Putative RNA-binding protein (Ruminiclostridium sufflavum DSM 19573), 128 residues
Amino acid sequence: MCEANVYLLNEKGEERLFLESVDKIIPNGDELCLEDIFNRKKYIKAKIKEMELVEHRIILEKID
Amino acid sequence: MCEANVYLLNEKGEERLFLESVDKIIPNGDELCLEDIFNRKKYIKAKIKEMELVEHRIILEKID
């Protein structure tokens, strides 16, 4: 499966796991809707900083 | 491998293949830097409309 783990950068610039096994990401304004392979959804005001699909990594940055 | 194919929506709302086998996406302002698994890079003024990683699909929308 080609889902990714989504990490959120904290104030110190450290990556913290936000949601595992993410299948879908749908941006909507300044919010992202993340959906994992079990159809669980999580919403966050953030933007994508970087995606490395082969490494299954997506890094988010909070929007203040 | 868990790369994705990136499609760009045209004026008619149809998806057109923009870049295959994309590994990395790095947003920078209103531009996206896409890098495929062969380290070929392509830049485009666009935003991510939708990602379906399990389906290896990423849809972009041009920014005017």
